Amino acid sequence: MSHYCDLAPGHPWHGPYHDDEYGFPVAGDTALFERLVLEINQAGLSWLTVLKKREAFRRAFDGFDVDRVAAFGEADRARLLGDAGIIRNRLKVAAVIHNAGVIQALRDAHGSFAGWLDHHHPMTKDEWVKLFRRTFRFTGPEIVGEFLMSTGYLPGAHREDCPVHQRILALGPAWQKA
After folding, report:
1. Is the whole-model pTM more than 0.90?
2. Active-site residue among 4, 22, 34, 39?
3. Active site residue: 4, 22, 34, 47, which one?
4. pLDDT tens digits, 85-136
5. Out of 4, 17, 116, 128, which one is annotated catalytic?
6. Smallest Cα–Cα separation from 73: which of 37, 50, 113, 100?
7. For an engineered disulfide with 111, which of 27, 70, 115, 152 has Cβ 3.0 to 4.6 Å away?
């Protein structure tokens, strides 16, 4: 089985994501929401497809501004479903808009999306999956696992001998504090 650390280095799309984002701690609501949106949209597709469409997602979802996306109405849904730059899946679009509203409520209760994650940390992947399924839409085991690994809440984003792993350890990811 190959690992992302074997495939990504030197690749024009995977390389920068692997080297500078994947597994690094993420705290801001906009960045966390972006990662959740991208993971939801990756379901059933390749991560390369999502990375190539990332800028189009950023434009389509107003820079991943939680409040703006939570306020999207039917005209916005129609616009998104007609946008060839993103993944036009009705369930995924609906989940993104719904989940933005959920993040607003989490922010009200915990100060931020990261505050909510920190409140529940540490948990096993299975516990996280159950929590995400109760809280969000379109969040199965793969989506939740990748979201949490990519944002530093679960280990496993990089092999231990990967140089990026050492850079992440120096930042003190949440999983390291468990």
Report:
1. yes
2. 39
3. 47
4. 999 999 999 999 999 999 999 999 999 999 999 999 999 999 999 999 999 9
5. 17
6. 100
7. 115
Residues 113 and 106: their CA atoms lie apart, in Å, by 6
Q: Are 88 and 56 in contact (CB under 8 A)?
A: no
pLDDT for position 178 = 73
- Residue 137 in contact with residue 98, Cβ under 8 Å? yes
**Residues 76-105 as b or e (16 or more Cβ within 10 Å = b):** beeebeebeebbebeebbbbbbbbbebbbe
The answer to whether residue 146 is catalytic is: no
State yes or no: is 47 an active-site residue.
Answer: yes
Active site residue 13: no
Give me the long-range contacts of 153-159 (CB less than 8 A, separation at least 24).
153/117, 153/121, 153/128, 154/125, 154/128, 157/4, 157/22, 157/23, 158/4, 158/5, 158/18, 158/22, 158/23, 159/3, 159/5
